[in-house]
Amino acid sequence: MCGIAGELGRGTSAEAMIGALTHRGPDGVRVSQVPGATLAHARLSIIDLEGGWQPLSAAGSTVIGNGEIYNYVELARDYQLAGKLGTGSDFEPLLHIYAQEGPAAFDRLRGMYALCLIGNDGRAWLARDPFGIKPLYLLEHDGGLAFASEPRAFVAAGLLAPELDEDAARELLAFNYTLGEATIFKGLRRLAPGEVLEVTDGRIVGAQARAPLPVRREAADDEAALLRRLDAVLENSVRVHQRSDVPYGLFLSGGIDSAAIATLMARLNERPVTAFTCGFNAPGAKDERTQAEKLARALNLDWRETSFGEEDFWRILPQVAWALDDPTADYATLPTYKLAEAARGTLTVVLTGEGGDELFGGYGRYRRALRPAWLGGRAAEPRPDDPTVLARWREAARAPEGLTSLQAAQWGDVATWLPNDLLLKLDRCLMAHGLEGRTPFLDPEVAGFAFPLPDRFKVRGRYGKWLLRKWLEGACPAADPWARKQGFTVPVEAWIAPRAADIAPRLARVEAVRRIRPDAEAVFASGEAGQRWPLLFFSLWALIHLEGASPTDALAAVAGRP
Questions:
Q1: Fewer CB near the last or first residue (10 Å), C or N of the chain?
Q2: 76 with 158, same domain?
Q3: Do the beta carbons of residue 478 and residue 295 sit within 8 Å?
Q4: 543: left (phi over 0), alpha (psi -120 to 50) or beta
């Protein structure tokens, strides 16, 4: 995993851009010019520590990439590349395949990636993995097209004067994330998940997209056969996601998804797998450390626990606001950041359970969507006060025809909050510490199995993820897969409330807050509708990324804390 930046067409900003991304690639920076482009790469060494430096050239083409191509071994075998490869890099097979079949090569990739490829045919390509696990941002300007792994790169290079997009800011406060390709900065957009752009002379001349989910339904009803297939599919995904030349482990909660990953990692590794768990030190907080420890003992994991308390909250909050230059106001960013902080120095690669709920039907809102209205059923969508914002969400979450209502709800989440909240959180919080996060559930083989399943194998009675629970019941009974889930909450209100009266007027003076929520002081002081946390986060984010404050100064301005 790395940071990438570049200019297609005219431009001289790549070096300044990559200088702002060295936290993503602490092992070194390289900048190269190729015909029609300048490419820059900040490396976090994972595969082929000596030979995998980028920009990487082979078969007449050049590539820079952020992420991992997990099936590089199989690609080298299937395309008979033995003797042709000059490195052990997971990105090199792509260059040889491109030389054989052009942009169809992107469809062969199994992994998480954001990349730029300059082909031997003179064409330039930007591509992002179908789930949007890895980020990529684009800025068109007079000289051509600039791209980078994080928005801060454009600001550092003087290509972008950070100006707030008010519609996106309203989305942030409504959903805790922003929608679609537009970002919260005017003029800057994301490459959409699965999007592949063709660029000539710094101008976009073509686009195609690869969907993350198969648009089909499966009529299978042989439970035993499905459980065997699930075991094989998940084991294969975890196996390839472990491919690494550096230490790897996992983040372990008390939930089903990380328990499934832990079970398979324990099966596939001879030595105890290192696992990190975070719990909360606050009265009444839901804490999964007891269940995580029970599971760790059963699987013989090398288990490490870390705690999160009020001091951590005020220390980490401004650091998270800095890391999330493309913001998500999801409070799960806080323990994720703390876990990454704890794992740094022990691990370089971390496997996590993101995607299990979306693919196997785990959320309570899915179960509600399947109930009739007279039993409390309602659509699996957010409920913001602003109907205009809701209309934009519905458009972004629109599913293809022919899906069940459950599949349509899953599709909507995969299109909206998965890339722009959960995966954004994972990328920024881990990359701030030079760690690579990997998500074995978000794999085309797993998606191809899970999404088409009949609804009854996802939701049954009061249980979501029914088939995954049934598998875990046999694979690791200690995971207690049928226990009532505690739910994941971070007790932010307990830490904010005692200072709310002092924070409210300070927060309301922040220009971006005044523009988006003129009533912010009253709303924050009263604690109305759970708005304290998103308003506090947004105020810090705005001071840091719009007004140029340091994280320390931003916190002092809003919370009166040095």
A1: C
A2: yes
A3: yes
A4: alpha
Could you give the CA distance from residue 126 to residue 204 in angstroms, rounded to a whole number? 10
Number of domains forming the structure of the chain: 3
Q: Are residues 104 and 146 in the same domain?
A: yes
Q: What is the pLDDT of residue 149?
A: 98
Q: Check whether 562 has a pLDDT greater than 60.
A: no
Q: How far apart are CA 394 and CA 391, in angstroms?
A: 5
Q: What whole-number distance in Å separates Cα of residue 275 and Cα of residue 250?
A: 5
Q: 499 and 475, same structural domain?
A: no
Which of the pair, 9 or 216, is modelled with greater confidence? 9
Task: Give the pLDDT band of residue 154 (cuts 50, 70, 90).
Answer: very high
Instruction: Quote the CA–CA distance of 543 and 83 in Å, as a whole number.
Output: 54
Confidence of residue 215 (pLDDT cuts 50, 70, 90): confident
d(CA 438, CA 192): 19
pLDDT digits (tens, 9 = 90+) for 166-208: 999 999 999 999 999 999 999 999 999 999 999 998 999 999 9
| Residues spanned by the domain of 156 | 2-209
Measuring CA to CA, which residue among 26, 24, 23, 90 is closest to residue 52?
90
Mean pLDDT, residues 250-261 taken together: 95
CATH code, domain carrying 184? 3.60.20.10
Instruction: Please tell me what DSSP assigns to residue 263.
Output: H
| Residue that terminates a domain, selected from 182, 209, 236 | 209
pLDDT computed for residue 561 by the predictor = 66
CA 183 to chain CA centroid, Å, is 15
* C-alpha pair distances (Å), 550 with each of 356, 510, 556: 36, 15, 10
Q: How far is CA 11 from the centre of its chain?
A: 29
Interstrand relation of 274-280 and 111-118 (parallel, antiparallel or unpaired): unpaired
Is 216 contained in some domain?
no
Q: Which of 69, 60, 73 has its CA nearest to residue 34?
A: 60
What's the CA gap between 258 and 251, in Å, rounded? 7
